[in-house]
């Protein structure tokens, strides 16, 4: 297995700008440094060639007749060694063979020695006789810049100067360039970071404002948006972003205000209509019951119609009560908060469900100790009844329904699980919204039927108790889970 190591990529815009600035400056410094080193090396090498041209073959000529000795201070009639620079190399070749070679001693008078290896002699023999400088590495003498001339006796005279001063100057320039450019990059990086941070301050304020907006409960309707992002120069990119963001906030605020007003009107209408409907619905139901108690003979058709009127008026009354409950919860009216034995409520609710749906298989999974929660016993009982009714009405006969009650981390979790066909996928996202029904076709054997308010009441009551409700559903397994603080 191989692992590819990669440099971490900067994620923020600020880091990318700073990294880009430093990289570009580093490339520029490297280009300048390389150009300076190459130019200095070429310049000093040309200076060596000029010195060799000026020196000419005077020193190797002094070797031609064997008259030069390292201790000589004066030249003979064939060469003037007094004008030769220290460590100047001279060699005479005849017939491709080195006949003599020497090096001008340094100021201390010590002869550096001129022992040449076979490789050195071959390099000298292959040196072009063109009056131009060539760099050759001599084993004992390191690198030399050599220049060859034709002698008067058919021999080849070679003069050379060491390239060590050139290399030392180039290395010193490289060291100075690394130090100076390193300091320049450090200073530029710090200054660039401060400059970029100062330049992006308006964008940071826009991001901070957006963060505060994202933390607001926008779904609640009436929301006071935070102050707008500070205006910047509209000619800059950051200024245009800030202006566009402020316009978007104004549109969002207007939309929230209009939506909240519309919802308030709808809630008020639902509450008023439900309140006004309670009396006529009760009156209709009462008259139907009274007519059914008439002692005289009543045709079967009339009796059947009166019973339908009574049943539908009862169903309408329940719907009106549900709408009034949702309207009260939407208005934020607090529910009763007393210790409630949730275990007892579950037992009673499952007992009622068995009586209502004997064709289903009902199962309980309860802890040994009673589970107590603070809340409204009547509304929590309604939550249980709605969940069990939902499982009974929307699953076929013989479905197993299991009610589980658990306590963990100061939270009571009530689960209603069934092995029915599951909630349709297109219905799941809005299953807790009002007037949402998982099966729009009423079952023939289902008496009454809901209007799609049962699960919305479950969600509203759970939230009013500081809890939550969730759904997990697939074919053959559906679980509604209500969490309540203990």
Question: What's this entry about, in short?
Answer:
The chain has ten helices and twelve strands. It is an alpha+beta fold and 486 residues long.
The main sheet comes to:
5 strands, antiparallel
Count of DSSP E strands?
12
User: What structural class is derived from the secondary structure elements?
Assistant: alpha+beta
Mean pLDDT: 78
Could you please describe the fold and organization of this structure?
The strands form three sheets. A five-stranded antiparallel beta sheet has the order 2-1-5-4-3. Strands 7-9-10-12-11 form a five-stranded mixed beta sheet, covered by helices on one side. The two termini are 52 Å apart. It has ten helices and twelve strands. It is an alpha+beta fold and 486 residues long. Helix content is 49%, strand content 16%. The longest helix is centred in the middle third of the chain and has 56 residues, at 237-292. α6 packs antiparallel against α7 (300-330) and α8 (342-356) packs parallel to α9 (377-393). The protein has helices at residues 13-55, 58-62, 118-125, 164-199, 201-214, 237-292, 300-330, 342-356, 377-393, 454-464; strands spanning 89-94, 97-103, 134-138, 142-150, 156-162, 338-341, 361-365, 372-375, 400-408, 411-418, 468-474, 477-485.
């Amino acid at each position: 297995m191989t692992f590819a190591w990669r440099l971490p990529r900067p994620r923020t815009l600020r880091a990318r700008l700073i990294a880009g600035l430093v990289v570009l400056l580093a490339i520029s410094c490297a280009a300048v440094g390389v150009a300076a080193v190459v130019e200095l090396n070429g310049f000093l090498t040309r200076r060596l060639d000029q010195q060799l041209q000026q020196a000419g073959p005077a020193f190797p000529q002094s070797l031609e007749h064997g008259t030069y000795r390292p201790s000589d201070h004066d030249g003979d009639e064939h060469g003037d060694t007094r004008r030769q620079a220290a460590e100047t190399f001279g060699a005479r070749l005849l017939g491709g063979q080195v006949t003599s070679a020497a090096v001008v001693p340094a100021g201390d008078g010590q002869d550096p020695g001129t022992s040449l290896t076979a490789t050195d002699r071959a390099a000298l023999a292959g040196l072009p006789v063109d009056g131009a400088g060539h760099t050759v590495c001599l084993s004992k003498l390191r690198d030399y810049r050599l220049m060859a001339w034709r002698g008067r006796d058919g021999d080849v005279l070679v003069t050379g100067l060491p390239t060590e001063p050139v290399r030392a100057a180039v290395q010193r320039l490289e060291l100075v360039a690394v130090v100076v450019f390193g300091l320049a990059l450090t200073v530029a990086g710090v200054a660039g970071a401060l400059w970029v941070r100062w330049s992006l301050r308006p964008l940071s304020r826009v991001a901070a404002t957006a963060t505060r907006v994202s933390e607001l409960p926008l779904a609640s309707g009436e929301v006071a948006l935070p102050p707008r992002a500070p205006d910047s120069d509209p000619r800059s990119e950051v200024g245009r972003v800030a202006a566009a963001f402020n316009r978007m906030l104004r549109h969002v605020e207007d939309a929230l205000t209009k939506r909240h007003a519309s919802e308030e009107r709808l809630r008020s209408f639902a509450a008023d209509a439900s309140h006004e409907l309670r009396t006529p619905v009760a009156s209709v139901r009462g008259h139907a019951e009274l007519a059914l108690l008439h002692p005289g003979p009543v045709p079967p058709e009339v009796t059947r119609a009166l019973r339908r009127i009574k049943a539908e008026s009862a169903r309408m009354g329940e719907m009106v009560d549900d709408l009034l409950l949702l309207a009260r919860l939407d208005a934020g009216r607090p529910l009763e908060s007393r210790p409630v034995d949730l275990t007892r409520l579950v037992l009673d609710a499952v007992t009622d469900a068995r009586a209502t749906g004997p064709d289903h298989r009902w199962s309980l999974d309860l802890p040994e100790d009673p589970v107590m929660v603070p809340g409204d016993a009547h509304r929590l009982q309604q939550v249980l009844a709605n969940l069990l009714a939902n499982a009974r009405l929307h699953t076929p006969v013989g479905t197993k329904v299991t009610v589980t009650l658990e306590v963990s981390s100061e939270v009571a979790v009530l689960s209603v699980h069934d092995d029915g066909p599951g909630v349709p996928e297109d219905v799941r996202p809005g299953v807790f919204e009002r007037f949402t029904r998982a099966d729009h076709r009423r079952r023939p054997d289902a008496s009454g039927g809901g209007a799609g308010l049962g699960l919305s009441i479950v969600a509203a009551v759970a939230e009013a108790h500081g809890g939550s409700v969730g759904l997990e559903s697939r074919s053959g397994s559906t679980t509604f889970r209500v969490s309540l603080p203990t």
